[in-house]
TrEMBL record:
Gene3D superfamilies: Glycoside hydrolase family 3 C-terminal domain (3.40.50.1700), Glycoside hydrolase, family 3, N-terminal domain (3.20.20.300), Immunoglobulins (2.60.40.10). Keywords: Carbohydrate metabolism, Glycosidase, Hydrolase, Periplasm, Signal. Its EC number is 3.2.1.21. InterPro entries: Cellulose_deg_GH3, Fn3-like, GH, Glyco_hydro_3_AS, Glyco_hydro_3_C, Glyco_hydro_3_C_sf, Glyco_hydro_3_N, Glyco_hydro_3_N_sf. It is an enzyme of class 3 (hydrolase). The lineage of its organism: Bacteria, Pseudomonadati, Bacteroidota, Chitinophagia, Chitinophagales. It catalyses: Hydrolysis of terminal, non-reducing beta-D-glucosyl residues with release of beta-D-glucose. This is Periplasmic beta-glucosidase.
Length: 777
């Protein structure tokens, strides 16, 4: 089958054979033989030049069009609405179609029934796994392990590419400092240095070094740009920020993805200093293309061109022309390019040169993916049977999930639990599979995920008992409950009176040795359009938790969330808190691994956890102000603080406990007086003083004490995850060079300034050892 179809497209490319109705000039084939001596980029250019010569304006605009796929039922692809458009050459690609059979059938229409037989690109939101789901990205970042993150992206690529997908709308690298914003779940937290490292890892994981194997897919970094800085944490809201802040704090992860060779970029919904990103020429062309040298293509976010109308930029024709001329290449869903650019071209509001450029960029992506050589390269039914949801992938998902959990509290060493006795598993998240995968799990079947109940029971076998009681609904208000069940991730609403559910749970707790309370957000409480103005535990669950604590039984809070929560009470009153985010398909097994101590937790927060929403935005790398409060200080008149709450977070950036303890030495520097490019080594020794082996994430922060502009009180500039056996001591060294001191100054010049620096090393951003370093030019 594959061979026959291959021959079909190859023959067309060789001879220019076309469908009976519409004769087209010969389409060149990828010049594998024709220009054997030429370099790969030159061969690509020759191929695309020849192809574009044959294309009509409508066909070029078709390449720029990424419509919604609609409902393509298996076996019915050729009758779908979209099929007609594909035949007419009006479609460049499709997205979020699941299954190799459907994709193959649709591709067949493009390469057998359209005039030029140009293959489609197939995208999907493969955000944290394909069928094998890994933890949500915010959780992945808490591993502080770029190798693991890269591995998760590679496995996602292997699975997706086996099922017809060649392009993913990931990584999402929006820096977010406002936990009200639900999409904080999709990124890597608040720090540009860590965010850049994760961006590179994900691009590498998806794309590999090239697309030769057919087992890697094209990445798309999003949402360009500054989407995470939405005012008030309200999704899609306005973004307004100084250029210095943009360059130093928000843009680095996008740039890191570009430097890592990401194939595509997605424009964001928000405006950026009064010009929506999707029509922002400075962003899409001056910065992205001219300053950063990006050579791939830019796709809009979902209907983002149409939304320019509501932003107030004009009608669809005006908005489409503005988006094109700003540097957008592909129009997701809205069809503004397809339907209005011909008129704009006639009226001189858009240029053919820009359309050609956009078309070329999309054809180049298809060429690089190998689709002109084999349009079914990613549609191999045999791979779909063997390469997806494998036991090896599931094992990786389990290992990675366990490393993403963050132990927030462990008073009196309640954890790890012993395998035995009776466990009361209580809470609305204790016995649900589909909520384990979290937001953006398009391709997976949530019912195949492992719940906490499944995981605990499997780990215990017949060594102990796990009895479950729901205890509370996720939220107490049924209308709120409807708003968090839009995509069908069931919250299993229980219509019993809240007091009855609590009474049942308390009775169960009273008979048990230990309580595991699985509480927090359900999957749809974070992610797109899931902003919250109150980020505490919902009241229904708070009441339950307080009742459980009152029983006097040891309570372990297994906390599910896609964002930092405000849990000041819990942080003082619940003996053990394990934050498990949304751990993916293997969540329940990984939770059991950590609760029973088979895995020692090592995750560290990549966001600051505030005491209350009034402190937001609260982030570790802030400026000092002219009236700072002394560290760990409480209220002082005429200082930068609040009357009713201290400036401290509940948990700082970088924080996370272990079942063992680590002792840090003072920081030693290879020299306290550096000059020019001479590198400096900063070291600490760390000792595992406990009885368990563990992994510690050692973090290095710098502070420039005097600068031409104000500088943050600390900035992450290095991290290493080290394994330590009980009693073991290791020296951990970081090599610093002037590159680590660079920042964008008031003229947006990227350089370093001589002077004094604090070099801080520790296990989180608050508890550090400090040494002073002078660095001369
Ligand atoms: C989201 C994107 C996503 C796109 C396609 C949009 O609503 O903002 O992140 O990639 O839909 O599904």
């Amino acid at each position: 089958m594959r061979k026959t179809l291959l021959c079909g497209i190859a023959a067309t490319l060789l001879t220019g054979a076309v469908s009976a109705q519409q004769a087209a000039p010969a389409t060149p084939r990828p010049a594998t033989r024709a220009a054997a001596g030429a370099s790969a980029p030159a061969r690509m250019t020759t191929f695309i030049d020849a192809l574009m010569k044959k294309m009509t304006l409508a066909e070029k605009l078709g390449q720029l069009n990424l419509p919604g796929a609609g409902d393509i039922t298996t076996g019915q692809a050729s009758n779908s609405d979209i099929a007609g458009k594909i035949r007419k050459g009006e479609v460049g690609g499709l997205f979020n179609i699941k299954s190799v059979d459907k994709i193959r059938a649709v591709q067949q229409i493009a390469v057998e029934q359209s005039r030029l037989k140009i293959p489609l690109i197939f995208g999907m939101d493969v955000i944290h796994g394909y069928e094998t789901e890994f933890p949500i990205p915010l959780a992945l970042s808490c591993t502080w392990d770029t190798g693991l993150v890269e591995k998760s992206a590679r496995i996602a690529a292997v699975e997706a590419s086996a099922d017809g997908i060649d392009w993913t709308f990931s990584p999402m690298v929006d820096i977010a400092r406002d936990p009200r914003w639900g999409r904080i779940a999709e990124g890597n937290g608040e720090d540009p240095y860590l965010g850049s490292a994760m961006a590179r890892a994900m691009v590498k994981g998806y794309q590999g070094d090239n697309f030769n194997s057919g087992r890697t897919i094209m990445a798309c970094v999003k949402h360009f740009a500054l989407y995470g800085a939405a005012e008030a944490g309200r999704d899609y809201n306005t973004t307004d920020m100084s250029p210095v802040r943009m360059y130093n704090e928000y843009l680095p992860p996008y740039k890191a993805a570009v430097d890592a060779g990401v194939g595509s970029v997605m424009s964001s919904f928000n405006d950026v200093n009064d010009v929506p990103a999707t029509a922002n020429k400075w962003l899409m062309t001056d910065l992205l293309r001219h300053q950063w040298g990006f050579r791939g293509f830019v796709v809009t976010d979902y209907t983002a061109i149409n939304e320019l109308i509501a932003h107030g930029l004009g009608d669809l024709q005006v908005c489409s022309a503005r988006a094109l001329m700003a540097g957008i290449d592909m129009d997701m869903v809205g069809e503004g390019f397809l339907t209005t650019l011909p008129a704009s071209l006639k009226e001189g509001k858009a240029t053919l040169a820009q359309i050609d450029l956009a078309c070329r960029r999309i054809l180049e992506a298809k060429y690089k993916l190998g689709l002109f050589e084999d349009p079914y390269r990613y549609c191999q039914p045999e791979r779909a049977k063997t390469d997806i949801f494998t036991s090896e992938h599931l094992q990786a998902a389990r290992d990675i999930a366990a490393q993403s959990f963050v132990l927030l509290r462990n008073q009196g060493d309640v954890l790890p639990l012993k395998k035995g006795g009776s466990i009361a598993l209580i809470g609305p998240l204790g016995d649900t599979r589909e909520n384990m995968v979290g937001t953006w799990a398009v391709a997976t079947d949530g019912s195949k995920a492992v719940s906490v109940a499944d995981g605990l029971r499997a780990a215990l076998g017949n060594q102990g008992t796990v009895t479950y009681a729901r205890g509370a609904n996720i939220v107490g208000d049924s209308l709120y409950n409807n708003r968090i069940s839009v995509f069908g991730k069931n919250t299993n609403w229980d219509s019993r009176p809240a007091d009855d559910m609590i009474a049942e749970a308390v009775a169960l707790a009273a008979q048990s040795d230990v309580v595991v309370a699985a509480l927090g957000e359900s999957a749809e409480m974070s992610g797109e359009c899931s902003s919250r103005s109150d980020i505490s535990l919902p009241e229904s669950q708070e009441r339950l938790l307080k009742a459980l604590i009152k029983t006097g039984k040891p309570v372990v809070l297994v906390l599910f969330t896609g964002r930092p929560l405000t849990i000041p009470w819990e942080s003082q009153n619940v003996p053990a808190i394990l934050n498990v985010w949304f751990g993916g398909t293997e969540a329940g097994n990984a939770i059991a691994d950590v609760l029973f101590g088979d895995v020692n937790p090592s995750g560290k927060l990549t966001t600051t956890w505030p005491q209350n929403v009034g402190q937001v935005p609260l982030y570790y790398n802030h400026m000092n102000t002219g009236r700072p409060l002394p560290e760990n200080g409480w209220f002082q008149k005429f200082r930068s603080n609040y009357l009713d709450v201290s400036n401290d977070p509940v948990y700082p950036f970088g924080y996370g406990l272990s079942y063992t303890h680590y002792q840090y030495s003072a920081v030693t520097l290879s020299t306290a007086r550096a000059k020019g490019n001479q590198p400096v080594t900063a070291s600490v020794t760390i000792t595992n003083t406990g009885a368990k082996a563990g992994k510690e994430v050692v973090q290095l922060y710098l502070r420039q004490l005097v600068g031409s502009i104000t500088r943050p009180v600390k900035e992450l500039k290095g991290f290493q995850k080290v394994d330590l056996a009980p009693g073991e001591t290791k020296t951990v060294s970081f090599r610093l060079t002037p590159a680590d001191l660079k920042f964008y100054n008031a003229d947006l010049r990227y350089d370093w300034e001589p002077g004094d620096f604090d070099v801080m090393i520790g296990g989180n951003s608050r508890d550090v050892q400090t040494a002073r370093l002078s660095w001369a030019k």
